[in-house]
Write a structure and sequence with these properties.
single chain; 324 residues; alpha/beta; eight-stranded mixed beta sheet; two-stranded antiparallel sheet; 12 helices; 29% helix; Capsular biosynthesis protein
Length: 324
């Protein structure tokens, strides 16, 4: 026995462990309490009773950039800029228009009376009333003297000591104001109606008469009535007088019975001077013209071309100059 034990092979660790543990039972699923589980080194994560709300990043809306609307509708137009254009005084005298700083004539005296009526209806205690500082000069038919009267009225008003006068040529089909005054044509009234980005004050021509400026007709368009009928016209005219309580605008318009523009311009003014040519304008034409411009609340008649005065008016002669 001793010899046999001396030559016995040494037992492996597994064999020796089998003497203490029943591996066969463990392999059959009956390990049970035989093998203790290895303790975990980590604590279990506690269960969350209420789930956290989903994460939503704060989104701050970025407003779209505000692009200002094109408009000349700033509260007021400052004093006109640009060079002063000389008025052709010799041409004025040739066609019987009042020459600034000249001696009194029959024409200048007559328009002194006319302008007093206009000023009375235009201003109240030094301030404009009912758009009365916007005055339309009109006639029933062509060649009745409306442009001649518009220029003379503007010249007479410009002689006032505290008045600022703007003469606007609104006869888009047949402009004549600039030609009679010897002024250049260019950008004008219609351009401001067509192009909302055009500052209207840039189109005004200053003259060498400090208180008188002129606005030409501007470009020629085929749908002038439609442009004048728009709200843009009222806005442009309001811009021309805003902030200037002693500014008066005289608009020379087409004849009422010859172009529909006249009736649309009448909607935007507070006064209309309807020129009636003596021995030429018929009563029917006069009634029709008044009806067409009836949107204007104050219409006055101006009799032009009178050669005989039943009352014996002789304006001009009193100042030492024979009436022409």
């Amino acid at each position: 026995m001793a010899g046999q034990s001396a030559h016995r092979k040494p037992r492996s660790l597994i064999e020796r462990a089998a003497d203490h543990y029943d591996f066969r039972s463990a392999l059959r699923g009956n390990a049970g309490d035989t093998v203790e589980p290895m303790p975990s080194a980590f604590e279990p994560i506690p269960a969350i009773e209420q789930p956290l709300p989903p994460f939503t990043p704060d989104i701050v809306p970025v407003p779209a950039p505000v692009v200002p609307l094109p408009t000349s509708f700033v509260p007021q137009v400052d004093a006109w800029s640009g060079i002063r254009h000389p008025i052709d005084r010799e041409k004025l005298a040739q066609v019987g228009i009042i020459v600034p700083d000249s001696e009194a004539t029959e024409t200048s005296e007559e328009f002194r009376i006319v302008k007093r009526r206009i000023l009375s209806a235009a201003f109240e205690e030094g301030h404009p009333k009912d758009r009365g500082n916007l005055v339309l000069v009109n006639s029933a038919h062509p060649n009745e003297g409306k442009t001649w009267c518009a220029i003379n009225l503007a010249m007479s008003l410009a002689a006032e000591q505290d008045m600022d006068v703007l003469l606007v040529d609104g006869d888009f089909a047949k402009p004549g104001v600039c030609e009679r005054l010897g002024l250049p044509e260019g950008t004008g009234f219609m351009d401001a109606l067509v192009d909302p980005y055009l500052p209207i004050e840039q189109a005004v021509l200053r003259t060498d008469i400090p208180s008188l400026s002129v606005l030409p007709t501007g470009r020629h368009v085929t749908n002038d009535t439609e442009f004048v009928a728009s709200e843009r016209t009222r806005q442009v005219l309001d811009r021309l007088v805003a902030g200037h309580p002693r500014r008066i605008v005289i608009l020379d318009s087409p004849p009422a019975l010859a172009a529909s523009v006249a009736s649309e311009l009448a909607r935007h003014v507070g006064q209309t001077v309807l020129v009636v040519r003596a021995d030429r304008t018929t009563e029917a034409a006069l009634r029709d013209a008044v009806n067409l411009i009836s949107a204007c609340p104050n219409i006055r008649l101006l009799l032009n071309g009178v050669k005989f005065s039943s009352s014996g008016r002789q304006f001009g002669t009193y100042y030492g100059k024979t009436a022409s």
